[in-house]
């Protein structure tokens, strides 16, 4: 299941085509104490993790000045980092970005996943085609393409990367496996760590500890884990190094419950589904 906003990445398209590197609210009630968590994640040498339990802002719908008290900001790779905050760079690493498909067809057609001769698309995001992680050779080639974007994030001044759609195997018509994607994630982690960046596991709680132990991912970004009863899948592996996002179109009860259960341990954010900028009337951003 995909539970994130789709962003058109002009900079990513530029990287894909030519390798260019462009220039780079209110609170809920106080939570109750949560149960003890596992030991803190140990990052790779030279890598800094996001502060635990800090106010987080998810700015994928467009960058804007963070609210007072926000310590961690996530923006698309096409945006600049927010000054004075811990910054996470969003990458669509397991599927094509909207608007990118012609470039992939031209430059890397062999890296697009096919089933019965047809491109495999995400049913919730039909303009996104799954990338083919099914062999070591293809994973290596993909790591070079996505690795250029990771390098861009580092050069732009981000502190971490969040490669989205780790769970793409679940919508691949059995053309991909969890093993394929974990192995590809490990290649991305190696590149992120070499660039001095932390790297997040995005969703895919069904992997258990494999994201951390096999792919060397450093922390988790989990969407709607309260709604789907998955939050323990992440805290069991990453302890307090979890960022949780709940969405307003599910109602606000899940956010309230999340704050009560984990609000003093992990970062919990309530956001509008389209993660619009703060000057949009639909904007919602709340913290425990």
Automatic annotation (TrEMBL):
Give the residue ranges for region: Disordered: 26-47
Residue ranges with Low complexity bias: 26-46
What is an example of a Pfam family matching this protein?
Glyco_hydro_114
Domain Glycoside-hydrolase family GH114 TIM-barrel intervals: 56-275
Which keywords fit this entry according to its UniProt record?
Signal
Annotated signal sequence range: 1-24
Checking InterPro entries in the record gives:
Aldolase_TIM (IPR013785), GH (IPR017853), GH114_TIM-barrel (IPR004352)
Q: Tell me the protein's name.
A: Endo alpha-1,4 polygalactosaminidase
Which organism is this protein's natural source?
Gryllotalpicola kribbensis
Upper taxonomic classification of the species? Bacteria, Bacillati, Actinomycetota, Actinomycetes, Micrococcales
């Amino acid at each position: 299941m995909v539970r994130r906003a789709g962003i058109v990445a002009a900079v990513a398209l530029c990287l894909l085509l030519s390798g260019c590197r462009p220039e780079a609210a209110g609170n809920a009630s106080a939570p109750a104490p949560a149960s003890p968590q596992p030991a803190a994640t140990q990052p790779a040498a030279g890598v800094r993790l996001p502060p635990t339990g800090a106010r987080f802002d998810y700015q994928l719908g467009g960058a804007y000045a963070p609210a007072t008290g926000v310590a961690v900001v996530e923006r698309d790779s096409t945006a600049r980092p927010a000054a004075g905050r811990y910054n996470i760079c969003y990458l669509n690493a397991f599927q094509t970005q909207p608007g990118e498909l012609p470039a992939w067809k031209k430059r890397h057609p062999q890296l697009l996943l096919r089933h019965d001769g047809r491109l495999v698309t995400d049913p919730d995001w039909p303009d996104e085609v799954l990338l083919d992680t099914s062999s070591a050779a293809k994973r290596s080639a993909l790591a070079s393409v996505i690795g250029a974007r990771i390098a861009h994030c580092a050069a732009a001044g981000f502190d971490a990367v969040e490669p989205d759609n780790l769970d793409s195997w679940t919508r691949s018509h059995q053309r991909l496996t969890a093993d394929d994607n974990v192995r590809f994630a490990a290649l991305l982690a190696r590149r992120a760590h070499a660039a001095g960046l932390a790297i997040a596991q995005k969703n895919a709680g069904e992997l258990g500890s494999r994201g951390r132990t096999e792919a060397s991912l450093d922390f988790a970004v989990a969407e709607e884990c309260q709604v789907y009863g998955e939050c323990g899948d992440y805290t069991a592996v990453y302890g307090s190094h979890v960022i949780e996002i709940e969405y307003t179109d599910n109602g606000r009860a899940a956010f309230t419950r999340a704050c009560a259960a984990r609000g003093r341990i992990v970062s919990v954010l309530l956001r509008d589904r389209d993660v619009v900028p703060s000057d949009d009337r639909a904007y919602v951003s709340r913290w425990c």
